[in-house]
Design goal:
The chain is an alpha/beta fold. It has a single domain, classed as Aldolase class I (TIM Barrel). The chain has nine helices and eight strands. It has an eight-stranded parallel β-sheet. The structure holds D-xylitol-5-phosphate (DX5) and zinc ion (ZN).
């Protein structure tokens, strides 16, 4: 079953609590939480305090996508804030990705790495045994509302083959430009989790949109 993770980056920031508390009954599986530091990416969003404030409003897993330099510094703060899943970029300044993945697990959370569009699948292959999920960016990180990069589909197929050949359960998550049409292509290529920001939060009927993304 495909999981849908609405990205609250596209929600109304002035009504964030309401947006998050509605997600469960709208059919979402995870809450995707985009952390940007204005350094790794050219935008700033929110951090652990926002996660802590939203935590009591939903039972859904909070999926923290760290678009920051030194992601290892943020594992404990996000654990304390109630996060369930943390993903870190292989392109960040963190030199010891494997160690940070272990520290996410040691904190009792699910762990994964994220690959930018320009980063080959091979960059995560030796980390797969430590990854509950791999997030493939299908846009350049930093902003919602961008167009899906079709080359991502080749990366999904390549990663799917690698995961299946090794008999792993690692989930493939896709982030950026997901709409009903690109969602279908991602699912066909082997994706397990689809992040969707503008598609869900700009929809007249978010519940209906979540259903159609799931296919
Ligand atoms: C981009 C973020 C995405 C973003 C996706 O840097 O990681 O999660 O919110 O937004 P849409 O679905 O609008 O492309
Ligand atoms: Zn994201």
């Amino acid at each position: 079953m495909i999981k849908i993770a609405p990205s609250i980056l596209s929600a109304n920031f002035a009504a964030m609590g309401e947006a998050v508390s509605n997600l469960s009954e709208q059919g979402a599986d995870w809450v995707h939480f985009d952390v940007m530091d204005g350094n790794f990416v050219p935008n700033i969003t929110f951090g652990p305090d926002m996660c802590k404030a939203l935590r009591p409003l939903t039972k859904l897993p909070i999926d923290v996508h760290l678009m920051v330099e030194h992601p290892g510094d943020w594992i404990e703060p996000f654990k304390k804030a109630g996060a369930d899943i943390v993903t870190i970029h292989v392109e960040s300044s963190e030199r010891h990705l494997h160690r940070v993945l272990q520290s996410i697990h040691a904190a009792g959370m699910k762990a994964g790495v994220v690959l930018n569009p320009a980063t080959p699948v091979s960059a995560c292959v030796h980390l797969l045994p430590e990854c509950d999920l791999v997030l493939l960016m299908s846009v350049n990180p930093g902003f919602g509302g961008q167009s899906f990069i079709p080359e991502t589909l080749r990366k999904i197929r390549e990663l799917r083959n690698e995961i299946d050949a090794r008999g792993l359960n690692t989930l493939i998550e896709i982030d950026g430009g997901v709409n009903p049409e690109t969602a279908k292509r991602c699912i066909e290529a082997g994706a397990d989790v689809l992040v969707a920001g503008s598609a869900v939060f700009k929809a007249h009927d978010p519940a209906e949109m979540i259903k159609s993304l799931r296919g």
